[in-house]
Amino acid sequence: MTTAEVLAEIEKDVVFYDQSGGGASFSGGEPLLQHEFLVSLLKGCKRLNIHTVVDTAGLTTAAILDGVSAFADLFLYDLKTLDDAKHREFTGVSNVQILSNLRRLSDQQKPVIVRLPLIPGVNDTFEDIRRVGEFVAQLGNVHEIHLLPYHPTGTEKYVRLGKEFEMEGAVPPSADDLSLYVKELRQYVAGVSIGG
Amino acid sequence: MTERVRKLREQSINAVPHVSPERARIVTGFYKEAQFLSAPMRRAMTFRRIMEQKDICINDGELIVGERGPAPKATYTFPELCCHTIQDLDILNSREKVWFRVEESTRKEYSDSIIPFWKGNTIREKIFEEMTDAWKAAYSAGIFTEFMEQRAPGHTVLDDKIYRKGLKDFKREIAHSLETLDFLNDPEAYNKKEELAAMSIAIDGVLTLAHRYADKAQEMAGRERDAARKAELESIALVCRHVPANAPTTFWEALQYYWFVHLGVITELNPWDAFNPGRLDQHLYPFYQSGVADGSLDEEKARELLECFWVKFNNQPAPPKVGVTAAESSTYTDFANINTGGLKPDGSDGVNELTHLVLDVINEMRLVQPSSNIQLSRKNPDEFLKHACRVIREGRGQPSIFNADTIVEELLRQGKSVEDARSGGASGCVETGAFGKESYILTGYFNLPKVLEITLANGTDPRTGKRIGIESGDPASFRTFDDLLGAFKLQLRHFIEIKLRGNNVIERLYAEHMPVPFLSVLIDDCIKKGKDYNNGGARYNTNYIQGVGIGTITDSLAALKYHVFERKSFPLSGFLRMLAQDFEESEKDRLQLVNMSPKYGNDDQYADGLMQWVFEAFYDLVNGRKNTKGGVYRINLLPTTCHVYFGSVTGATPDGRRSGMPLSEGISPVQGADRKGPTAVLKSAGKMDHVRTGGTLLNQKFTPQLLESEKGIENLTHLVRSYFTLGGHHIQFNVVNAQTLREAQAHPEQHRDLIVRVAGYSDYFCDLGKSLQDEIITRTEHQGF
Q1: What is the ipTM of this complex?
Q2: Residue B336 near residue B304 (C-beta atoms within 8 A)
Q3: Residue B293: burial class (beta carbons within 10 Å; 0-12, 13-18, 19+)
Q4: Crossing angle of helices B227-242 and B189-223, rounded to 10°
Q5: A2 — contact with chain B (CB < 8 Å)?
Q6: C-alpha–C-alpha distance, residues B3 and A20, integer Å
Q7: CB-CB neighbors (< 8 A) of A18 in chain B
């Protein structure tokens, strides 16, 4: 699809954005992997005065980030854990660049909502959560955290694809646990919600 | 809910629907003796006789009194329009759903005196006698239905006049009209005299009924041991002595006055959509304010009175049908549809405290009758819409939501004054009307996809092999898609003109034989003109033909255009063979049609442009054609449940729909064809020019989870406001999940109370037929906005 085609599709729903204050969200996969296309779409939306959101895991260069940030209105920014060793173990990459990019967006005063996936046995300890809260509290641009609790909805898909499901038996966090996490995070950030 | 209301509600739900022969007996008796009477006088005197002789009852604990029959859900019949046969009565008594008990004594009375008297003399028989062969052929092929073969024209709503004037005041107006008749110069003077005199007699009938209720209440008060109930019965007697004779002075009197008027209208004949108080919140508000100010009323008392009023509607099932429809009809609902909100006649925001109270009442009562809607204007506050959405969230399909601004625009386009337009609203399913001033008659559903089927067979109905259309060209000779469209439009004209011709005869039958002097008192300007409601007495006289299957016809044309004329993936001959064989042995091709064609409902201009073309063709052929009452024809797009019947008589369609399956419903996309979510559906539906219709119906279904939070409610309000910004006329929501519906289908006994939005009304899911149930389950279940 061309930029013009995507923009035409986005523009179809202007009547709804006008009523709800909504706009276009770019997610993925990872939209920054196609950052040139993304930037041309963001520019197009800016011209049309349509609010934009970029949903990213933040693993990119400072230059690319700056290019996108110049035209995006809001970032949804995944933060998995502050513990670099753990980050490497479960994602295969270090979180250093990711954290520095998040600070960079903070320096630019770009609005960001941090999204924290809660994976049982990986990053769902109080220590993990507290450290995210502390980190985010230092940033001036994050006023909201969305907790995204693990759910097993995809199990069936693994079975159908004949793949091994590595999270077999993992139990989603209980409602009680979740409310404790929310309470903990509220000490650092005003807006904490489950899902998003 | 008070203990009183809880009991009344329970009584109403548990009352056994049964056929009461009372009205048929009185009418038959009167017709036997009345020889030399004009039609209006005959009708008025029949009506007065019923009011004098009918059994009356005051139910335990009730505050608003009056039943149409001798008891709750004792349902009258109307043999002068259509007389039940013994077989009809047996079907009513024995059918699984929406049954009416028929006592042996009723059966006997029918066979001994009622049937013998009416045989060959009913309006229904007269209608079929007068219709041409072409009409009968199209009617039995399922091209259109005929509304007036069993029920009288009605489809109308009351304005505020009864809250300002008593029936005695109306009698004075009638007397004045009589005095000013000009027998020297007006050739119609005699007819007017008969009509006006009849109106006055009809009023006497209702005044008599009210006095009988007052006497009954007084007599019961005399015997009552419980002091509180004794006082209530005395109050009821006082109320019934004051109204409807005089203008009401209290909230209670206003409700009771309306209710007597309602009973009058639905006893006189069996008009479509019963009758309807219209803008109840606005009409009652002055009485609410003055009652609160002088301390005689508070919110709780007003709520209780409204809830007692609600129960009365639920006690009056729609009159049972005859013939085929006795077996098929699947609702007790009589389509009274109460309006709230909207605009005041001066154009300002019409929402008041009572609007919110009415929404609470809807939420608490959880009854299938009366139906309810909100009129939403851009001038109304969001909190009004949110309150309505919170009621909708409870999942009983009420209230439905109308675009008050579009309705005003529709009425203005039709030439109504701006005040009349603002005081109008919606009734029945989704029909636009000027309340208290318009006769807006739905005349029949029209099967748009069936006309394509006949076009593709050059005028023959493939189901029967009978030629019922014209020769619009051998499809093999169509070189372009426009050739096909041209042929379709020729067939469309042919069938619409057959329908219009028939309508114009049927309309005269009602005008000549079945005037409605009591209803005529209530609708402007019948008294002024000295003319009956059924004969052009109303200020505005509009007739409608309701197009059905816009989604199916659009997708069918899109599939033909795309696959046959553009991509040439199928030759037309092969395509037609596939349809003739109902896609047997061509499932792969069928799936290609279903999955690989442009579809209405996805904000795809390829398909939506064809929807617009069909709309224009239908509009051009109907809009502005003259009726016999000085008014014109217009179009509506709503099916009620007729898309199921029309589907059952329509063969396989080019969109991949199999023979016999339901057509698309309302202006909704074909079931399952919308794949881009509700916003795309609204965009597509918004491309229709709603302002040039008198109503369109759009159903959306959501699971309850989506609306759990206030955020969900907010999203729903944005969705509604967006659709209305696009000019949409109406939207309604079913909030249930498919799983619940399947469970209810399997175990109806555990889900008796499950109410779903069917079309322009809500009904108990378990009372619906299997195919309609299936259809509701498959309507796209939207999982996200």
Answers
A1: 0.84
A2: no
A3: exposed
A4: 170
A5: no
A6: 42
A7: 722, 725
E strand or H helix at B587, and its extent? helix B587-595
- At B140, list the tokens: 């039995």
DSSP letter (8 states) at residue B545: E
Q: Judging by beta carbons within 10 Å of its beta carbon (0-12, 13-18, 19+), is residue B632 exposed, middle or buried? A: middle
Strand partners, A48: none
- Outline where DSSP puts E strands in B601-737: 632-636, 699-702, 730-735
Cis peptide before B345 (omega within 30 of 0): no
Query: What is this structure's pTM?
Result: 0.92
* Minimum Cα–Cα distance from B712: chain A residue: A20
Contact residues of B toward A, CB < 8 A: 603, 679-680, 683, 686, 715, 718-719, 721-722, 725-726
Q: Three-state SS string across B441-504, please?
A: EEEEEEEHHHHHHHHCCCCEECCCCEECCCCCCCHHHCCCHHHHHHHHHHHHHHHHHHHHHHHH
Degrees, nearest 5: CA angle B76-B18-B21: 40
- Asked whether the beta carbons of A48 and A71 are under 8 A apart, the reply is no
**Contact call for residues A104 and A65 (beta carbons, < 8 A):** yes
Which residues of chain A lie closer than 8 angstroms to B680, CB-CB?
12
Judge contact between B106 and B175, C-beta under 8 A. no
CB distance B431 to B109 below 8 Å: no
Averaged pLDDT, groups of 10, chain B, 785 residues long:
96 96 98 92 98 98 98 98 96 90 98 97 97 98 95 96 98 98 98 98 98 98 97 98 98 98 98 96 98 97 98 96 69 93 97 98 93 97 96 87 98 97 95 97 97 98 97 96 98 98 98 98 98 98 98 98 95 95 95 95 97 98 97 94 93 97 93 86 97 95 74 92 97 82 82 63 74 73 50
A15 vs B contacts (CB less than 8 Å): 683, 686, 722, 725-726
Instruction: Pick B603's closest partner by Cβ from A12, A19, A22.
Output: A12
